[in-house]
Design brief:
4 strands, single chain, alpha+beta, 9 helices, 250 residues
């Protein structure tokens, strides 16, 4: 009996070392599998993060491109006569009071017989909005030169009548508008259906291109284009009216 117990103890002692390595191998395998799974998860997370980042970058680039294209399209639209006229008509509907711009006094010689004559005139411009003054200042040397040309083109006999003064005032307004708003002014002029003599006079003062009367095709094309827009009146132009604060002829 004692021998049997001793044999069993020896068998158990011999088996114990063999079981221990097996348990260690299982733990190592489990740890390796866990590490591999964790690594795989990290790779997946990293891939997802990269996709999200790339998507965000591409989305931002597309948004920026779209915003830039939209801004460029809006800027181009704001330069068209249609848009400007719409804005001016909208301004009219709001019934805002006009603003007035006083220019420096002009002194010019007047053509005619019977000695030298001159005109001293102080001009006030009735405008649609405050932005017109800044645009006039941007072109002030050209504006003054063209206004002087109009003032000095009249005789004392022409300016001695109310009709003569009013005609010159309208011409001055056209000259200034043609400098600061050429497209809209051209539409306005062409809608008035001016005759050849009127067109030549407008060319002379710089309100219309010099080739208008010389090129029939240009003139007809411009008239047809003007007919496609709304009816434009003096009140739709930046300078609505020219008023004389002082008008002395000698």
């Amino acid at each position: 009996m004692a021998d049997e117990n001793e044999n069993q103890e020896q068998a158990l002692a011999a088996a114990a070392p063999a079981a221990a390595p097996a348990a260690v191998d299982e733990e190592a395998a489990a740890a390796a599998a866990a590490a591999k799974s964790k690594k795989k998860k990290l790779i997946i997370i990293g891939a997802i993060g990269a996709v999200v980042l790339i998507g965000a970058v591409v989305g931002y680039m597309m948004y920026s491109k779209g915003a830039a294209e939209k801004a460029a399209a809006q800027a181009a639209l704001e330069q068209t006569p249609e848009y400007k006229l719409q804005q001016q008509l909208k301004f009219k509907k709001e019934n805002k009071p006009p603003q007035f711009i006083k220019m420096d006094e002009f002194t010019v010689n007047l053509p005619g017989r019977g000695g030298e004559h001159y005109l001293q005139a102080s001009i006030v411009l009735r405008t649609a909005d405050g932005a017109t003054e800044g645009r006039i200042k941007d072109f002030l040397p050209i504006v003054r030169d063209r206004v002087i040309l109009v003032l000095s083109s009249r005789t004392m006999q022409e300016l001695s009548t109310v009709e003569g003064k009013n005609a010159m005032a309208r011409e001055i307004a056209l000259v200034i508008n043609s400098i600061i708003e050429p497209q809209l002014t051209a539409i306005f002029i062409l809608q008035q259906q001016p005759g050849t003599a009127d067109m030549q006079n407008l060319e002379r003062i710089g309100a219309m291109p010099q080739s208008t009367t010389a090129g029939e095709k240009l003139s007809q094309t411009a008239v047809q284009a003007a007919a496609q827009f709304w009816k434009v009146s003096e009140m739709d132009l930046p300078v609505q009216q020219v008023l004389f604060d002082k008008f002395v002829m000698q």
